[in-house]
Every structure is written in structure tokens, then in C-alpha cells.
Design brief:
Strand order of the largest sheet of chain C: 4-5-10-6-7
Order of helices and strands of chain A: EEHEEEHHHH
Radius of gyration of chain C: 18 Å
Number of helices of chain A: 5
Structural class of chain C: alpha+beta
Number of strands of chain A: 5
Oligomer: heterotrimer
Number of helices of chain C: 12
Helix content of chain A: 25-40%
Number of strands of chain C: 14
Strand content of chain C: 15-25%
Helix content of chain C: 25-40%
Chains: A alpha+beta, B alpha+beta, C alpha+beta
Radius of gyration of chain A: 15 Å
Largest sheet of chain C: 5 strands, antiparallel
């Protein structure tokens, strides 16, 4: 079946099986490999992207269900050329190590800050409950999201 | 001003934060064009004779081949995971008539697409004729059921130290406990994966998600009866390894066989379920421990028996008890020590290296026993530690286990965490809550630890420094970072000596054609060996450059100086006439510049140490534990880049705390795994963990010129017992003296109930 | 992991969905937010031959104040329930509980109706809705019927819904006094056990439990005890009466029974004191 999705501001189209998962549409059909797959059970959040501006696990959405919607992946976050404050903050605060959870974590954080621009540390921790990281122990990820929310680089 | 010790942000990060890393499954290399996909059909029974019917799958559209062990008879069996493991327990390419754990590959399906493979896997018929299942290591140790008919027993390896008989006879006080250091999953976020192609020159080009590309290359060459240089191994970005990606697995290696047979590039990426079934697990020791000493707090004797669950096919895990034995007495001066270890096979996934690898198990045992000893004699656990720590003037110390600890300030580390945490105030608060019957209960746990890194033998590592004609530099390292930031810290080390800015230094790793040799990244070896090699190579490069500059100046090399601030050379007394790095490198070789290869050899292993303090709150009604504070000293010598070292500490602390609180791989009595996905396996998120409070301390090591030790595994070694001790401490007044890990709410609830019943009797 | 192949029908209206169900019957599965169904399909524990995608049916996403109750469209997402001002004001418990489902990403996709129809005994919303005394409006080929939450779930992942029926609306009586206690190992986990308590408009107290049997269920003995004047502590001792909790990797049946008592006690205390509004 044909699926048309606006991905990172660009209208894209693919002919896929109905069972195609959104994450495979992005990675294999559109070549957007920043979005990763880390589990089978909607647990890890590595595949998190924005659908119509909200965080969604792209391994738990059919490509077909994305028809006509707007999808933003990590690759599209700095489309204007300017890094998003969350990207800056992850670097400043060393909020990543191996980088595998990072695309999903960043997109989850962007969504979190859209819904709650001034979160407490606890809000950040509970807001990232759906994203697993094995490297950082989350300490610097939380610090990064708080820095991004404060709107000031350090 | 030196760049070393400053907070340089990682040069790796812009890529990860904009386009994402390029992991194996992300590769779009043209040489992989037309690659077929491999899917493994895995056993669903723990121990059985199997017959495989491939006919259903073989005729399915999109299926290129269905391969079983019968198709691999003429291929040499894969090499042993380690040379000294019993050959009779060797893992075959695919199950050879018998499966020994749930998840063992019984067939490999090659398909045109990823999706086809999963469909076809359902069509392979596997007939299981059940055999008796051995899950409990105690049952294995009886040898009543032998998992390998050609092996005389289920023991894969055993070690011993000292004489346990009568060891504790003269002690005034003896405490004993059986401690389960449970099986956990390494669970890197990126699962295993690989891709390969036989290139026109007859070589094998192999991309693998590994921590040690050179080791993986050698293993692969051995498996395929090739010379190492016939294999070009590339580790692209690797999404975490944690010990479990050291080397290359049989499932990875079979791709090369299939690629040759089908004359096509091959790709494989496992699922998370497969990862939890078959990548291997960590820890998995049953420890029978006794500690004896005097009522004044002096510990005199320590006896440790380790029953190591090696899993079905012995791997690193079978060997790790030697590390547990080496570090058995930890930071303490204990005169009499005996250790016995027995690594036995069971019908479970193989036990492999996992962050800490044998040392966390040693620390967990001795730290739990110190607390138990303290409770027994009614002394504060901090005080008991103080009374038994090896003093700073004792170093180097040769322990009863034969380890030579290089340097240490154990009491200083302990005092630093006690001060930073406000230990006295915490104890007061705890007592106040207990007296008032207030909830939640407060628990304070300590651990003081020492571990061994880049050992047990003195290690070595390769580096190449190449200063290019344009004055920029490339550092080649045999380490293989996958999150540890070598591209940044090794550039800092080179910059420090060369005076070339970090932005102009590129670090190359992970490609066996580009890097001559290397030991990879694992066992916290990288900075002290690979970093020291870069340091040494950079110094040698400067020496050679001074000679080259001397020729340009027509001066004596002894008179030529490198002005690091200007990135150029001049003759002493004539600072105005400068030959830049570019000029000097060009004079070495106009095309390639100056190239210096070096191998750094350490004087010996290093022994990082520290102290952790955990504070937990326990809901006495439900048993739920909440970790509220972690205060740690992790002393690994001078810090090259605090940003990266803090990150290593944070990650280790989280993983260590996770073992204490949440994580456990479980099998039922029939060997059926109960934790096959991340919904069931207790991998914590940010919501379960607190911020970590780090206290800095830096005691240099004499084993390398940088004075550094490994920091990668400190957290998992120090944190686990501190958190476990905190949980027990919270319940101590209720009569609880031990809770096994993970200290789940149900375990805590049961421990409270059992203590109540005990006091009722 | 990838679902087995299926045919796909995109429904733009409830009528579309009903037509597809009329054609395919029990071969078909309805896909709402997919946050429970898709994981099951990926693990191939669910293998429908037809998937009817409801995500485009905008008309079933709404919250309406109907005086004594709220009407919530079946395809209203958890996130929208949790953040909806009317829900937060009129049935604050429901907003609170919707905010506890899964994680933010799951709440951005998952729907109230999907959760109810999936009938997982450990799910939060069905538990809360059972205590609240909700009714479920179901459309079939012949028309509408309304089913009480008490009668809805018939077994593990089983409901009274016929294969050709569609849950279209959840009707929730307003309630001010409530308690909800969810116990999990990790924040993201399904409830090990959860207890929901509501003081209903008629003054009675309802208690519902998650994960204490094959369906979400009422703690009838507790309700009776409260009705006859028992306090929270005394009444909650009966919380596990008549339940059949299972054992799994997170908890044994015994421990679940214990948790049911503790959580019910806490949820009851909150409800009876009315200190939540």
C-alpha cells in the first residue's frame, strides 16, 4: 500500500506492506537511520520520534497509521541549521555516551519540554520513564533537560 | 596551561546529536548492496535431543537457504571462547542434535528481506525429545546429569587458594551466609548485529558490534581457517557493550560461512528477545561465605566458596571466579584466606563478562560480610571498616590472593564519603524515625572497594601518531571506544605533548586495516594502556620532530625546543624563527608526514578503589525500596577529562544500583526464561534513580606514566553492595540480617515477615 | 520483531469500521492506539488476518460534560484525558489515572476505548472506570447498547464485545472523593496491583482492583464492610477476598494479596477523608 508522510518537513511516499512499522519506514524506506530500535515491547524508547509534534514510539505504530501526518526525527530537529536547545544541552552536560538511546531520548525530551516548559528534576525523571539508557545512569540526561528548559547554555 | 584535567566537551557528540551514530544496522555501505538477511531459529526447550525439519521454510518465497548443523559438517567447529576451557564443552555452530538452553540456535535462515526471515522462522519444524534439565548450579555440581557426555563432569573450571579447613577455628566471632549474586543481563541498548561480504581480493570484510575488533578479527580468522590479515574487521559505532560484546559471537561468525556459501553479503541484527536469550548473562554466583574475627572489630579470617553458574557453553563467565578469588579480601588486611571456586554448566544461557566481571562479585561478598560482622559485634559498619582497611603506608601490598595493589588511600576515601553524605546526621535521622515509628524506614549502606583493572597480567597497547603535512594529527589506537570518549580524551593526551589543538587531532579506531594491532576496550584498560600509548607515542613524535627540525635549522637536536603554545619548533635562544609542525612533518615525508608507531607496556595491573554510601527509604508495608542518595568516591588516579570520568562513574553507579534493586534474569525449573524482554526484565529508567553525588579523589598509580587507573567498572563494583547493605540496614532493627539481590519489594516484605516470625518463636 | 502479514482497512468513520467488522468478523482486529495490540502482534501472540485502523476516526475523540456524567469518545487518547480541563475538574481521578498509563509516548497514542476493550486486568483505566461506575456504549450492526463496566470484562483479555461491535463511548459518572494506589516495580510497568476507590454520588463507596484475577474486579467484601461502617484499615483487610491473583516475575500471588490489602487501605483512606479533590 502507498503511504504518504511529511517527514522532517518534506513530503515522502513509499509503497509498503500494511504491517510495515513506522520505524522501518523511516529507517529502511527513507534512510533516516538516527532513529534506533532497542526492544520488541515498547519499553526502551530508542525509536521515539515526534508525530504531529508529540513523542511516539515508532516501533509501535504502523507506517499506515502515519498517513498524512507529520513526523520529526532527530535528523529534522536542527533543520533550520540551528541546534535545538535540547541538542546543545545534551552536549554541554555530556548526556550521551554510546549514542544509541540518544535520538529517542532527545526527541522524548523535546516533547516533554513542549508540554511542560519548566519541569522539576522529578518531572524530567518521570517524563523520561519510557526511555532507557544503559550508559549514563541518567544523571547527565536529567541535567541536560533541565538546562534546556532554563533556556541558558553554560 | 595543561589541557589535561579540564572539561573538554566530547568531539564525538555533534554527529550523535544530529544525524545519529552509524551502528551496524545503519550501514548503507555500497559493498553491502544486495545483502541477504540471516534469522536464527532458536530452541524453545532447555535440554532436548532435536531433529529439525526445514522443508516448510525452504520452499517459501524469499527464502534463500535454511541451514542446520548437518549442512556445516565440513566447516571446522568454532574456536573455544577461551583457550583453556574444556574442548568437550565447545559450542557448535548450530545445535548438533542436542539443545542445551532456550535460545540456542538450531537453524539459520537466509532471506531476501528482514521481514521474510521472521515469517520463515515460524515454518521450521523442530522436534524436541526432552532430556533432564539442570538449572540449579547445586544440582549441576552433583554431576548426576552430565550436560556434555564427553566431559567427565559438569565442572568447566575450578580454582583454589589457601586451606578452608579449620580456617575460622580460632576466631572469637564467626558469621556465615550464603549469598546469591544473581544472574543479570548486560543489555546494551544496541543488540548484537553484524554484516559481512567476501571482497574480490578474497578477503572477508566484516562489520561487527564489538568492543575488540582485533580480537574479533583473530577469532574469526581462526574459525574460518584464515590468516588474520585475510579478515578486515570494522567496529562501526557500537551501542554499548558492557563486557558482553568483547570478541565476536558464534551467531556473528556464521554469517561469514553463509556469505561464502551463497556468494552474497549477509546481515544480521538480533531482536531484544534474542539478546536476552542468547547474548549471555553476567554474575550468576552462589557464594558460601564465612568471616571470623574478634569482638574488638578486627577481622582475622575469610572463607569464600564460589559456585559459578557458567551457563550451557562455558564462556568468560566460567573463568571469572579467578578474578573473584584475586579480589576476595578487597580493601582489608585479612591474614587468613581460603577460596574455592567451581564453575559448572547448566541449561541456561552462557555467562559472559559483564561490567566488573568477577570483581563486583568479590566486593559484594566481602562487603556484605563486613556489615554482617559489624552487626554481630554491635559495631558501626564504618568503624569496622576503618579497623581493617589496608593503611596507606602499606603500598604496594601483596595480598594473600597474590595480587599486588599498586596504591591506595582507603580510609581517606571512606572518610570523604562519610563527610560528604553527613553520615552522623543520617544515623541520627535513622534513629529518630525508628524511635518514633516513622515511615519510610531509612537505610544507610556502605561499601569500600578495590578492584583490578588492565590485569591480571601487565597489559600493553598500540598507538600510532601521525602528524600530517598540514600540521594536523591523526591518532590511531588499538582500543575500541563505544561511548567512552577516546576521540576526545586521547586527542587531549596527544595535544598535551604535541601542542596541536584538539580540534586538529583526529582519533581513528575500530578498523583492523587502519590500526595495526590492539586489545580493544574492556576491563577498564583503555586509558591506562591505550591512553598511555598515545602519550608515549606523542613524546616519541616530538623527539623525532626535534631531530627533523634540527636538520631544518642545521642545529643540534638538543638545542631544538617545541613551543606548544605556537605549535612549532625553534632553536633555543632564537624563538622568532619557528618551523611549524606542518613543515617538520613534511620534511619527514611530504605525502604522509611524520608517523610514529609505539607499543606501551604497563608495569602491572592497577587497583582503583573507592567508597560508596547509599541511602534508601523502605516502605515497611509494601517492602518497596527507593534509592534516595548515592555518594561516592571513585579514585582512579589523575583525571584526564572530568566530563568523561563523571559519566563513567554515573553509568556504573546506575548499573550497580540496578543489580542491587531491580535486575534479575530468571529461569523456571524447566529452564524456561522468564525475563525475555525489557518489559519483564527490570532495567531501570530515570524515574527509578536519584542524582549521584560524586566526591573527587586522585591517588596516582606507579604503573604508567599518566598515573591513571581504570574508571569504567568502578560504579558497578562499589554501588551494588552499598545499596544492598542500605536495604538490610533499613530493616536491621526488625531483626533482618540479609536480603538477597535484587532487593525487590516482595523479598523485603518476606524478610520482614520472616524476621517477625523468628522473633515470635 | 515484525507482525505477521495482514490485510489493512483504514476506517474514517465508525460506520466504516462497522462495515469492515461486518465483513471480516472475528478475523479482524481493531487498531486504536495500538499500544497493547501492536506489541502482541510483534511477538506474534496476536495474529489477526485483518486490521481495521481506527486512528483516523476523529469524531470519536471528545470529552463532553453531560451534567451528572462525562461522555468520553472511545478514541480519546490517554494524554488528552489526562490534560483535559473538564476531566480534571469533574472526574479528577480519571485525569490522574490516565496520566499513569504506560509512559508519555504510550499516552500520546493509546486510547481510553482501546484500553477498555483490550481488557487487560492490570490496566489502570479499566480499574478506575470500574470503581467510578462507568458505562460503555457499544455500536453493532443493529444499533447501540450500553454495558455497565461491571459486566464488561468476561475473562483475561475477553469482553462482552461481539466480533462485529465497536466501543464508541465511555460514560463516567462524576465523583469527587477518590483514591488510587498503583504499585509497580518501575514507573513504566503495568500495575503489580492497583486499588481504586470512589465515593459515588449516592454516597456508596466502590473499590476496584487491578491484577488480582483474570479481569479487573470489585472488592465486594471491602465495599460491604465500608457500607456497614468499617474504617479503611478494617475494611481493607478483606481486599483479597474472592480474588484469584496470579504469580509472575514481578510478584507471587501471596504478595499480590498483601499488596491488595495495603493499597486498598491507602486508597480508601484517601477516599474516605475526601482529602483529594
Amino acid at each position: 500500500m502507498k503511504v504518504t508522510v511529511k517527514v522532517n518537513g518534506e513530503q515522502r511516499e513509499a509503497d509498503v506492506e500494511p504491517r510495515r512499522l513506522l520505524v522501518h519506514l523511516l529507517r529502511d524506506d527513507f534512510g533516516l537511520t538516527a532513529t534506533n530500535i532497542g526492544c520488541d515491547t515498547t519499553s526502551c524508547g530508542a525509536c521515539t520520534v515526534l508525530v504531529d509534534g508529540e513523542s511516539v514510539k515508532s516501533c509501535t505504530m504502523l507506517a499506515a497509521s502515519a498517513e498524512g501526518r507529520e513526523v520529526t526525527t532527530l535528523e529534522g530537529l536542527a533543520a533550520s541549521g540551528e541546534w535545538h536547545p535540547v541538542q546543545d544541552a545534551f552536549r554541554d552536560k555530556h548526556g550521551l555516551q554510546c549514542g544509541f538511546c540518544t535520538p529517542g531520548m532527545v526527541m522524548a525530551a523535546v516533547s516533554l519540554l513542549r508540554e511542560n516548559p519548566k519541569p522539576s528534576a522529578e518531572d524530567v525523571r518521570s517524563g523520561l520513564e519510557g526511555n532507557l539508557c544503559r550508559c549514563t545512569g541518567y544523571h547527565n540526561i536529567v541535567a541536560a533537560v533541565l538546562q534546556a528548559s532554563s533556556g541558558q547554555a553554560q | 596551561m595543561s589541557i589535561l584535567g579540564t572539561r573538554v566537551l566530547r568531539v564525538e557528540d555533534p554527529k550523535f546529536l544530529t544525524t545519529g551514530g552509524v551502528y551496524v544496522d545503519d550501514l548503507r555501505d555500497p559493498r553491502l548492496e544486495g545483502a541477504a538477511y540471516v534469522t536464527y531459529v532458536r530452541s524453545v526447550v532447555a535440554h532436548a535431543k532435536v531433529t529439525v525439519d526445514t522443508s516448510g521454510a525452504a520452499d517459501t518465497p524469499g527464502v534463500l537457504a535454511v541451514v542446520t548443523m548437518d549442512d556445516l559438517r565440513e566447516v571446522e567447529p568454532p574456536p573455544l571462547a577461551l583457550p583453556y576451557l574444556p574442548p568437550a564443552m565447545r559450542r557448535p555452530w548450530l545445535a548438533d542434535g542436542v539443545v542445551r538452553y532456550v535460545g540456542e540456535p538450531v537453524a539459520a535462515i537466509v532471506t531476501e528481506s528482514r521481514y521474510d526471515g521472521e515469517d520463515a522462522a515460524e515454518l521450521v519444524g523442530v522436534d524436541y525429545e526432552p532430556l533432564p534439565v539442570v538449572v540449579d548450579p547445586h544440582a549441576s555440581a552433583t554431576n548426576e546429569v552430565l550436560l556434555f557426555p564427553d566431559a567427565p563432569s559438569n565442572t568447566a573450571l575450578a580454582f583454589e587458594l589457601g586451606e578452608p579447613e579449620g580456617l575460622l577455628d580460632d576466631c572469637e566471632v564467626v558469621v556465615r551466609q550464603q549469598i546469591v549474586n544473581q544472574r543479570v543481563a548486560p543489555a546494551p541498548l544496541e543488540v548484537r548485529g553484524s554484516a559481512c561480504v567476501w571482497t574480490d581480493d578474497g578477503r572477508l570484510l566484516f562489520w561487527g558490534s564489538t568492543q575488540s575488533p582485533h580480537g574479533a578479527r583473530d577469532t574469526l580468522a581462526k574459525a574460518l581457517s584464515l590468516e588474520p590479515d585475510q579478515v578486515h574487521f570494522i567496529a562501526p559505532d557500537v551501542g554499548g557493550g558492557f563486557g558482553a560484546k568483547f570478541d565476536v559471537s558464534v551467531e556473528d561468525m556464521l554469517l561469514a560461512v553463509l556469505a561464502k556459501r551463497l556468494s552474497r553479503p549477509m546481515r544480521w541484527t538480533e531482536t531484544r528477545t534474542e539478546n536476552l536469550l542468547s547474548m549471555g548473562h553476567g554474575r550468576a554466583q552462589i557464594q558460601t561465605v564465612a568471616m571470623g574475627g574478634r569482638r574488638d572489630g578486627k577481622v582475622e579470617a575469610y572463607s569464600l566458596h564460589v559456585l559459578q553458574d557458567a551457563g550451557a557453553y562455558p564462556h568468560f563467565g566460567a573463568v571469572l571466579p579467578i578474578m573473584t578469588q584475586t579480589m576476595a579480601t578487597g580493601v582489608y588486611a585479612i591474614e587468613k584466606v581460603a577460596v574455592r571456586t567451581n564453575s559448572v554448566v547448566t541449561n541456561t544461557s552462557s555467562v559472559v563478562a559483564y561490567r566488573g566481571a568477577g570483581r563486583p562479585e568479590a566486593t559484594a561478598a566481602v562487603e556484605r560480610m563486613i556489615d554482617m560482622f559489624a552487626a554481630e559485634i554491635g559495631m558501626d559498619p564504618a568503624e569496622v571498616r576503618r579497623k581493617n582497611l589496608l593503611p596507606p603506608d602499606a603500598f604496594p601490598v601483596t595480598t594473600p590472593a597474590g595480587a599486588v595493589y599498586d596504591s591506595g588511600e582507603y580510609e581517606k576515601a571512606l572518610q570523604a564519603v562519610l563527610d560528604a553524605a553527613g553520615y552522623a546526621e543520617l544515623r541520627t535521622e535513622q534513629q529518630k524515625r525508628r524511635d518514633a515509628g516513622d515511615h519510610p524506614l531509612l537505610g544507610i549502606g556502605l561499601s569500600t572497594y578495590v578492584e583490578i583493572t588492565a590485569g591480571p597480567e601487565a597489559g600493553q597497547e598500540f598507538a600510532r601518531i601521525n602528524v600530517r603535512p598540514d600540521g594536523s594529527a591523526v591518532v590511531y589506537t588499538g582500543t575500541s571506544p563505544h561511548g567512552q570518549g577516546h576521540a576526545t580524551s586521547f586527542a587531549m593526551l596527544a595535544s598535551e605533548e604535541l601542542g596541536i589543538p584538539v580540534e586538529r587531532i583526529e582519533v581513528v579506531h575500530g578498523d583492523t586495516d587502519l590500526v595495526a594491532r590492539g586489545g580493544g576496550t574492556g576491563g577498564s584498560r583503555s586509558l591506562q594502556l591505550g591512553g598511555a600509548a598515545v602519550h608515549q607515542g606523542a613524546i616519541e613524535a616530538v623527539d623525532q620532530a626535534r631531530e627533523l627540525a634540527a636538520e631544518l635549522f642545521e642545529a643540534s637536536p638538543a638545542d631544538v625546543t617545541l613551543d606548544k603554545s605556537r605549535g612549532g619548533f625553534h632553536v633555543a635562544g632564537s624563538p622568532d624563527e619557528v618551523r611549524s609542525w606542518g613543515e617538520v612533518a613534511t620534511s619527514a615525508d611530504a605525502e604522509h608526514g611524520l608517523i610514529v608507531d609505539t607499543d606501551f607496556k604497563a608495569k602491572g595491573a592497577t587497583f582503583p578503589f573507592g567508597a560508596h554510601l547509599a541511602v534508601v527509604e523502605v516502605d515497611v508495608d509494601t517492602g518497596k525500596v527507593r534509592l534516595v542518595r548515592m555518594v561516592t568516591v571513585d579514585d582512579a588516579g589523575p583525571v584526564i577529562n572530568p566530563v568523561i570520568v563523571e559519566g563513567q562513574r554515573h553509568g556504573g553507579i546506575a548499573q550497580g544500583a540496578a543489580q542491587a534493586l531491580f535486575e534479575e534474569v530468571r529461569y523456571d525449573d524447566d529452564g524456561n526464561p522468564q525475563t525475555t524482554n525489557l518489559a519483564d526484565y527490570g532495567f531501570p529508567s530515570a524515574a527509578e534513580l536519584p542524582d549521584f553525588e560524586l566526591v573527587d579523589m586522585a591517588t596516582p598509580s606507579p604503573m604508567n606514566p599518566l598515573g591513571v587507573k581504570g574508571i569504567g567498572e568502578a560504579g558497578t563494583i562499589g554501588a551494588t553492595p552499598a545499596v544492598q547493605n542500605a536495604v538490610v540496614d533499613a530493616l536491621a532493627h526488625l531483626g533482618v540480617r540479609h536480603v538477597d539481590m535484587p532487593t525487590t519489594s516482595e523479598r523485603v516484605w518476606r524478610a520482614i515477615n520472616d524476621a517477625k516470625k523468628g522473633s515470635d518463636r | 520483531m515484525i507482525p505477521a502479514p495482514f490485510d489493512y482497512v483504514r476506517a474514517a468513520t465508525p460506520d466504516d469500521a462497522l462495515a469492515a467488522l461486518g465483513e471480516h468478523g472475528d478475523e479482524a482486529k481493531l487498531l486504536a492506539g495500538g499500544q497493547s495490540l501492536l506489541p502482541l502482534m510483534k511477538l506474534r501472540l496476536a495474529v489477526p488476518t485483518v486490521v481495521v485502523d481506527l486512528t483516523g476516526i476523529d469524531e470519536l475523540s471528545y470529552v463532553r460534560d453531560e451534567g451528572d456524567s462525562l461522555a468520553i469518545g472511545a478514541l480519546t487518547r490517554h494524554h488528552d484525558v489526562a490534560t483535559n480541563d473538564v476531566v480534571r475538574r469533574e472526574v479528577p481521578m480519571l485525569a490522574h489515572v490516565a496520566g499513569l498509563v504506560g509512559d508519555p509516548q504510550v499516552r500520546h497514542r493509546g486510547t481510553v476505548g482501546g484500553s477498555v476493550a483490550h481488557a487487560d486486568p492490570s490496566a489502570d483505566l479499566p480499574t478506575a472506570l470500574l470503581a467510578l461506575g462507568a458505562s460503555y456504549v457499544v455500536r453493532g450492526q443493529q444499533g447501540k447498547r450500553t454495558v455497565s463496566a461491571d459486566d464488561f470484562s468476561t475473562g483475561f483479555l475477553e469482553t462482552v464485545l461481539e466480533p462485529d461491535e465497536l466501543l464508541v463511548e465511555v460514560q463516567v459518572p462524576k465523583a469527587a472523593a477518590w483514591g488510587y494506589e498503583k504499585f509497580t516495580r518501575r514507573a513504566i510497568d503495568w500495575a503489580t496491583v492497583a486499588a481504586a476507590t470512589v465515593r459515588r454520588a449516592d454516597g456508596s463507596v466502590a473499590v476496584a482492583l487491578a491484577n488480582m484475577g483474570p479481569t479487573v474486579l470489585r472488592a465486594a467484601a471491602v465495599e460491604q464492610a465500608v457500607a456497614s461502617g468499617s474504617g479503611a484499615a478494617e475494611a481493607s483487610a478483606l481486599a483479597d477476598e474472592g480474588t484469584e491473583p496470579g504469580s509472575d516475575v514481578t510478584a507471587s500471588a501471596d504478595y499480590r494479596r498483601h499488596l491488595a490489602r495495603v493499597l486498598t487501605s491507602r486508597a480508601l483512606a484517601a477516599c474516605l477523608s475526601g482529602d483529594r479533590d
